[in-house]
Amino acid sequence: MNTLRPLPLLSRLGFGARTIAGVRHASTDATPAPTTPSAIPVPVPAVSGAPKQGKERRPRSIPPPGHGERLWVHNHITADLIVYSLTPEMKSTKAFRQFAYTGKKLVPAKLRKDYWRPMAVVEFAEGKGEVGRSVFQKLRELKKRHLLEWEDEALLNMSKRERGKALNDQRGIAVADIAHVLAGRGKGNKVVVSEEDEKKAKKGRGNHKDGEVPLDGVVEVKKDQDAAEKVKLHQATVYWANEQDKYFAQEWTENVIHVVGLPEKGTDKGEDAVEPAASETEAAAEAPKAEAD
Fold it and tell me: Which residues fall in a compositionally biased region of kind Low complexity (predicted)?
C-alpha cells in the first residue's frame, strides 16, 4: 500500500453529490428547503448630538439671543496689546486673527490667562445686539488700520524693535477708537439710529403723537461741535476696570455712560458692577501726578 497516496477530497463526500468513476452525478436525495429565520427587531442606539424630534434647530445665520449686547476689551498687562471679544473668555482661534506681525518675539505665541485681563466692557440696551456687532466690526477694522497704516512719521525713524513695541502699545488707541465709534462716526455705523428704527418705534406706540415718540436708549447729540444738526445715537454703557483709562479719549458723547468696575461673569445686564481693587485705583490716581511732576 502506497502511504504517499493523497486522501480523497472532502468535497467529493459532501451532502447532495455522488461521484462514480470520477464523474459527478446529481444526487437523488431530497434537499431540505432553506428555512428563513424570523426577523428579530434590533434596537438602534441614539446618535449623540442628533437633533431631538419636535425641537427646531436655530440656523447658523441667526445669532443667539443677546449676542453682541456686550463687548469685552481684553488688555495684555505687559505689552498693552488689545483683543476685542463678544464673550467673556477669549478664544485663541479668533484672538490671533487680530494680531499682526510687528517683530520677532513681539507677538505672543499663545494666550496665557495670567497675562490678560479685561480692561473694559461695552454694553448696549436689550435687543440691540446688532448695534454691538457693528461696533465690534468697526473696532477691529480701526485696529487693523492702525497696525498697517502708519500715519505718524516718527515710526519710520525708529528701529524695527522700537517700532514693533510702539505698534503693540494699543491701550490708549483702543480707548480713543471706542469713543470714536460710539459717537456714530464711520460709514455704516449702526450706533446712529436709522429711519427704520424710528418707524418701528412709531408703529409700536400708536398712542403718541408724531414727533413725540420716544425711543428707548436713544440720545440726541450734535453731529459736529460747530454744526447745529443733531443725530440720534443709541445709548451705551462702558464699565471700566480702571477709571483713568477713559481719559485716553479727548471727549465722549452724551450717549455714553461710564461706570467704574466690571460686571461679574454670568451676571445679567443692569446688575451692580464689581468695584476695582484699592491698589489699582490708587495707582491710577498717582499716575497723572507723576506725569505732572
Answer: 28-51, 275-287
For residue 107, tell me if it sits in a domain: yes
Q: CB-based burial of residue 276 (10 Å sphere; 0-12 exposed, 13-18 middle, 19+ buried)?
A: middle
Please check whether residue 261 is in contact with residue 243, taking contact to mean a CB–CB distance below 8 angstroms.
Answer: no
User: How far is 26 from 10, CA to CA, in rounded Å?
Assistant: 17
Place of cell 456714530: 184
* Mean pLDDT computed over every residue of the chain: 78
In a domain, 36, yes or no: no
CA separation for the pair 106, 111 (Å, rounded): 13
> How many domains, the chain?
1
Does the residue 282 lie in any domain?
Answer: no
Q: Which amino acid is at 239?
A: Y
Kindly report whether the global pTM for this prediction surpasses the value 0.70. Answer: no
Three-state DSSP class for residue 230: strand
Segments in the chain forming alpha helices (H): 92-95, 129-148, 160-168, 171-182, 195-204, 278-292
SS3 state of residue 184 = coil
**281 domain residue, yes or no:** no
The amino acid occupying position 166 is: A
Length of the chain equals 293
Q: What are phi and psi of 185, to 5 degrees?
A: -85, 150
Asked if the model's pLDDT at residue 11 lies above 80, the reply is no
Residues linked to residue 239 through DSSP beta bridges, in sequence order:
121, 259
Do the beta carbons of residue 82 and residue 74 sit within 8 Å? Answer: yes
- Rounded to 10 degrees, the C-alpha dihedral 42/46/51/55 comes to 80
pLDDT band at 153 (very low <50, low <70, confident <90, very high): confident
Extract the C-alpha cell encoding 39: 426577523
First to last CA, the chain: 123
User: How crowded is residue 88: how many other Cβ atoms within 10 Å of its Cβ?
Assistant: 15
Give the model's pLDDT for residue 276. 52
